[in-house]
Design a protein that fits this description.
This protein is an alpha/beta fold. Helix content is 32%, strand content 24%. The protein is built from 11 helices and 15 strands. Strand 2, helix 2 and strand 3 form a beta-alpha-beta unit. Helix 1 packs across helix 4, helix 3 crosses helix 6 and helix 6 packs across helix 9. The N and C termini lie far apart (43 Å).
C-alpha cells in the first residue's frame, strides 16, 4: 500500500531500561540493542515498521549522549531529523518539540508518536490501525491506539472507550484516560471490560497536539514552538520547560474534554520492560531461551533465559526459570519471577558510586 500523504512519525528514543541491566546501560540503552535476535535494534525495527507509512518523514528525539549512535544506526535519515535533548524533560517535551518542528515544515501534517523500544510482531496489523488513526486525526481528534489488556498491569495507561465514531471502521470516542492506576483499579478495569491499555502511541495533527497542550500548559507549548522557530535557543529554553509526560499533560485532560478517540490495536505489543518479557519474545526450544551466541551456552535440565554477551562459556545446570545475563564486566543471576527487581541492583550500584557499571 502507498505511503500516507502528510503523515510524519515521531520516535522518542529515551529511557535507560534499568530492568534490563547489565544488558542495557545508560550509555547504550535498550532501544539501541537487538533484543529479538533479528539483526536489527529495537530502534531500527521501529523505523522499518513505519517506513511503508511515512517514507523518510521521520523525526527521532533522543538524548544528546545518544544522538551520534542513533544517527549511526539510521544512516538514511537526514542528520537534522535527529533532535538531541540537552537533558531529559519527559515525553511531552520530547514529542512536543518534534511536533513543533514538523508544524513549521509541514503545517497541516499529522504526526504519530511511536516509542523506539517496543516490539510489534504483526507489522501489517499495526500499519492498518495507524492508517485508520491518521484518518480520524484529520478530523481534529487526538487518537491513541488501545491494546487489549491481558492482565491488570499497573505500568500502562488505561483508556475507557465509548460510542463508535461515524465513518470509521473501528474508531471509538475515548471517555476516560487514566495513567498507571494502582493494582486494585487495574483489576477493576479488566473485570468491567471496555478498557484498553495505552501503548503510548498518539496520532494527531501537529498543530492540534500543540494547541491542546497550550490549553493546559501554555508556557510549555510556547517554549517548544519558540525552539522550533529558533533552534539556537534550545540550550537557553530547554531547562525551563515543564517536565511532564504526554499522558498527564494532554491525554488525560483532553479525553475528559471529549477530544480523544481510540482505535483498537489488534496486534501483539510488548514494551520489553524486563527479562521475563524478553524471554517470551525469543523462540522456544529445548532448555532456556538464548539471546546471543547459543553455541556459547551449555544448559542441562534448565529453563528460563540466558543472555550470552561475553566471551565466556555459560553453563546452567538444574535451574528452572532462571535468568543469567553475562556481559564483559558484569553478570546477573535472578529468576523470571523476580525480574522486575533488577532495577534495585541499579539503584544499589548508583548508591555505591559505581557509575562505571551503569
Amino acid at each position: 500500500m502507498p505511503e500516507v500523504e502528510g503523515f510524519w512519525a515521531v520516535v522518542p528514543a529515551g529511557g535507560a531500561g534499568t530492568r534490563l541491566w547489565p544488558l542495557s546501560r545508560a550509555g547504550h540503552p535498550k532501544f539501541l540493542l537487538d533484543l529479538t535476535g533479528s539483526g536489527r535494534s529495537l530502534l531500527q525495527a521501529t523505523i522499518d515498521r513505519l517506513a511503508p507509512l511515512t517514507g523518510d518523514h521521520v523525526v527521532v528525539v533522543t538524548g544528546a549522549a545518544h544522538a551520534d549512535a542513533v544517527r549511526g544506526q539510521l544512516p538514511g535519515l537526514p542528520a537534522d531529523r535527529v533532535l538531541a535533548e540537552p537533558a531529559p524533560r519527559d515525553s511531552m517535551a520530547a514529542i512536543g518539540l518534534a511536533a513543533a518542528v514538523v508544524e513549521r515544515t509541514d503545517p497541516g501534517a499529522v504526526i504519530g508518536s511511536f516509542a523506539a523500544d517496543h516490539v510489534i510482531p504483526d507489522a501489517d496489523a499495526f500499519r492498518a490501525a495507524v492508517r485508520e488513526a491518521v484518518e480520524v486525526a484529520r478530523e481534529g481528534h487526538l487518537v491513541t491506539l488501545g491494546v487489549e489488556p491481558t492482565h491488570p498491569a499497573t505500568g500502562f495507561g488505561y483508556i475507557r472507550a465509548g460510542e463508535r465514531l461515524d465513518g470509521f471502521p473501528t474508531a471509538l470516542r475515548a471517555v476516560e484516560f487514566v495513567e498507571k492506576p494502582d493494582a486494585e483499579r487495574a483489576a477493576g478495569y479488566l473485570a468491567a471490560g471496555g478498557y484498553g491499555w495505552s501503548a503510548g502511541m498518539f496520532v494527531g495533527r501537529a498543530r492540534v497536539l500543540l494547541d491542546l497542550l497550550h490549553t493546559w500548559h501554555p508556557d510549555l507549548a510556547d517554549g517548544l514552538r519558540a525552539i522550533a522557530a529558533e533552534p539556537s535557543r534550545l540550550g537557553e529554553l530547554w531547562p525551563g520547560l515543564t517536565r511532564i509526560a504526554i499522558d498527564h499533560a494532554v491525554a488525560e485532560p483532553a479525553a475528559a474534554a471529549g477530544h480523544v478517540a481510540v482505535v483498537p490495536a489488534p496486534f501483539g505489543w510488548d514494551d520489553v520492560g524486563d527479562f521475563a518479557s524478553l524471554s517470551a519474545l525469543l523462540p522456544d526450544g529445548d532448555g532456556p531461551h538464548v539471546l546471543g551466541d547459543a553455541d556459547a551456552v551449555t544448559a542441562l535440565g534448565s529453563s528460563g533465559l540466558v543472555v550470552a554477551g561475553g566471551a565466556r562459556r555459560v553453563a546452567v545446570v538444574g535451574m528452572d526459570d532462571v535468568v543469567v545475563v553475562d556481559t564483559p564486566d558484569a553478570v546477573l543471576v535472578t529468576t523470571r519471577a523476580r525480574a522486575q527487581e533488577v532495577k534495585a541492583v541499579v539503584d544499589a550500584l548508583r548508591a555505591e558510586g559505581r557509575e562505571d557499571l551503569l
